[in-house]
Amino acid sequence: MAIVLLTIKVLLYLTLPLIVGVGVSLAITHIVNKPFKKYLALLIVVLLHLAIFEALGRSRPHGFYLSLVMWVSYIILIENYKIKDVWFFIISLFTAKKQSFLSLLLCLRYLQHRKIVLLSIAAVALSCALLIATDSLFTGFIETIESSVGKHLGDIILEVPSGSVMTEYGVLIESLESADCVQSATSVLRSQGLLLAAPGKVRPVVAWGVELQRRLNMTPLQESLLFQKEKPTEDISFEVPQDPDAVGGIVGIGVLAAPDEKTDLYNIEMIKEMLGRSMALTTGTVSSSGSQENSTDVNAATQRQFSRKVIKFKLVDVAVTGVYQFDESFVLLPIESLSQILYPDKGAVASTIHIRLKPGTDDKRAIAIIRGIWQNFAQERFDWYPFVSIESAKEMQKMQVVEYRKQMDVLLFIFGLISMGIIILVFCIFYLIVMTRRKDIGILKSCGLSSSSTAAIFVLFGTVVGFIGAVLGIGLGYVMIVNINPIERLMSVALGINLWKASTYMFTQIPNTMNWDSVLWVTAGGVIAAAVGSLIPAVAAARIRPVEILQYE
Amino acid sequence: MVQWILAWRYFFKRPISILAVAAVALCVFIVIVVMTVMSGLVEDFREKNHTFTGDCVIESDSLVGFGYYEDFLARLSNEPIVEAASPVARGMGIAVIPRVNDHYNIGVEIYGIDPDLHSRATNFAETLYYTEDISKAFIPVYNTSLPGCIPAVDVIPIGRRLPEGGYFHWNSPIVLEFIISAFPLNSKGVLARGGMDPINTKSFYYSDDSHSGLVKVDGAAVYLPLQQAQILCGMDTPFKRITSIHIKFKQGISVRKGVETIRALWTAYCAEYADKPGAELFGHVRVQSWQVNRRSIIAPMETEQVMMTMAFLMLGVITVFIIFVVLYMIISHKSKDIGILKSMGVSVQGILAVFLMFSVFVGLAGSIIGGAIGCLFLAKINGLEDWLYEHYQWQLWDRTIYAIGDIPNKIEPQVVTIIVISALVACLIGAAVPSFQAARKKPVESLQVNQL
Hints:
The complex is a heterodimer of chains A (553) and B (452).
Chain A: H1 2-31, H2 38-56, H3 60-78, H4 83-95, H5 97-113, H6 117-152, E1 156-159, E2 166-167, H7 169-178, E3 182-198, E4 201-210, H8 212-218, H9 221-224, E5 248-252, H10 253-256, H11 268-272, E6 278-283, H12 298-302, E7 309-319, H13 324-327, E8 330-334, H14 335-342, E9 349-350, E10 352-357, H15 363-378, E11 389-392, H16 393-396, H17 398-419, H18 421-436, H19 438-446, H20 451-482, H21 484-495, H22 502-505, H23 517-542, H24 546-549
Parallel strand pairs in A: 4-8, 5-7
Antiparallel strand pairs in A: 1-10, 1-11, 2-9, 3-4, 3-6, 3-10, 5-8, 6-7
Helix pairs in contact in A: 1-2, 1-3, 2-3, 5-20, 6-17, 6-18, 6-20, 6-23, 7-15, 18-23, 20-23
Chain B: H1 2-13, H2 16-53, E1 56-60, E2 66-67, H3 69-78, E3 82-97, E4 101-113, H4 115-121, H5 124-127, E5 148-151, E6 177-182, E7 200-206, H6 215-218, E8 221-225, H7 226-232, E9 241-242, E10 244-249, H8 255-272, E11 285-289, H9 290-293, H10 295-333, H11 335-343, H12 348-392, H13 413-439, H14 443-446
Parallel strand pairs in B: 4-8, 5-7
Antiparallel strand pairs in B: 1-10, 1-11, 2-9, 3-4, 3-6, 3-10, 5-8, 6-7
Helix pairs in contact in B: 1-12, 2-10, 2-12, 2-13, 10-13, 12-13
């Protein structure tokens, strides 16, 4: 039943705008029959269509559909077609099988015998491949950005106001995990620090106090560990072999070493030698606070107590997540150890809760539920509870993603504009064919082929050329996208420059997933461009008069 | 002469030429606009890196740095090729700005400099907002007895970037304390004082902003007086150390030759001081030109430019196809003319020249039209963007995210020349095959009665 309803919905969705659009155009043509009013009628149609599509909602398929309907309307209005003409056209599609067969046969023969047609196919293929590759690369990149935070942190991030920490976070996690939309949750104590990793190697890092087992179960952290990856999850720990009293830490690979300038790969052997090495991390805060707003009393500032805390730990593992932002700045420590050093009088505390939602859960609904749980938990405990931030991982990346999408649209627009050359190319090639095949056309017409059928042969031919080119382009684009990482390595070796660097593009691997959503509009674009290019030659072919072409002189 | 006239006639008398010219013009227009903007961005970025670094850098790849630099600076000051040299002590630290947030640590890069020397070797003085007398750059105007610091413009995390570009500034520097901590490292790279007191912490006061236009620098750099930075990072004992010397050459000295001279001087200097304690630190020091020093930062942008050029080359193939087809059309219609010309004695080269010249006319006309429209568009591009932002809040780059001012629209003659030459070459490539076919036509075949 659901499938039937869905089918009806899709059919209505697809056909209704077309029927309305074409219907309105025909009606106006019928009413407004004076030639000078055609353009006014066209304006009315355009405005009506815009209103219809505005009501349907703005999206790429709607935009494409709007263009198609407008084009059909334009032809109907300018050529002054009547309802009976359209009806005749529809009937002829089903009845004139013989003529369609002739059209198809001629198309195939032209494709086989006119090698110059291959140029137009190649041009369409090239443009489609480039558009598909650009769109897929950008879309893949944007999707990786959107998903990386969610994948490595959680779908929802609950963060306390800066400077505050929450105690008894175990109670909150328990409440969260009992909610129907939450799969799991884990706490984090976050602090910026300075790490001395080896003699002379100092760098700013982000220290994370984590519940390791919970985090391993919730995120792909285990897959990214260099040394404990193969162990059963429950055996992975911060424990330092042969030194049970020492604090262990997991450090991002980029914190320990820089990747090779040319290959962008890390020296794993050198990193393995660092296992078990002692490191020092310093962090800390101003211990006393007081309002200094609008103060010009400098002495008030200098009287503040400030202390730094130094945590010494040993390296027990190295994380290679493939996300540059994490790999180059993260130091994971047991939350209890970090809490004890930073807040010795408060016990175990957390500054952030990472929450994984059950598959298919709506983010907004989940945030509302989590906010409710938070209020119940925090209302009695913390006076700062209303200022907590509860955000989805996607929302956190929104500003950046919008900017990337804009850049993608600008680039696709530029490439699309150059690809308009296809129209000129197809026009030239088809015009050449028409001019050199005037006798053939004359013979066909003398045998009874109508002018519209003659034109249809060339438009169909153009459409076939566009379709074949688009299919080849999609194939080429697919091969390029799927093999983009080997191609990049090959080009890097050949050109001697590193084309993709994690430090620049955030990820170690180029996203290599094909964006199938773009296939529809790229194919449609290729076919329409080729069909438009063939229109004038088709009209020229239709206007050929056998009596002039076939006369002996 | 006849070739010129014929090519000219074909170009003007055949309406199909307009399509070829339109295709070339469209391509040239887009490539000029995109390449001007891209190369403007790259050039701007290179220039910012150049002025930030100076012409030449003597730099240690370790934060431990190197010693005995004072004597070398004295020698550099006597070198006729050196305009200025500035010692820099660079280290890593964390900072807290209590007035902004008591509990928020910011990872910072400490640059210990002598503001006067550094401004002569780099463009440091130009990056400051309030300072007029560079020798007083580290003196806070609100209390001249306090130690001053100059944070880069994005280090203060209060979102001062304005939507139309630029930054919000107060009328004069406000009282802002920066509590900066760093690990003091000894000459072995380990914690000084045996790790007993592993952290150095000191308060500095905001005296000015530095805006270099380089995102990574503007988001992390804090400039301190050289001596203070040396104390903070443990570079003051047992002999004073720095991490780099930035050098500016005198006008007219080529960077390559200047770097070679400095390298030779440095090698001799290292040999002279080889038996001093801590001389092993010289082994980590490299003498580099600014291009080599900043290569890892500039290279990704240049690579993007290369990739964009390759993408346009791929699409440029379509233009080559169009020229090919147009020529092919003309030749297929002019086989009789070609036959007559050849029967009158015009050589194969002559016929070839006619059609190649035709393609050059197409290329030139397309380039002139495309180039003119491109230049016009570039001249108005910032006004257009302002208008779009004013009416539709649309910007090519969101200025609150990207450190880009105006869209670069300075037309580089060499870029335009390369594009025009590429367009002409593309036209010639497209015309090559049809022209050869035309040249090889035999009059005896094309002038047969059944071919007429």
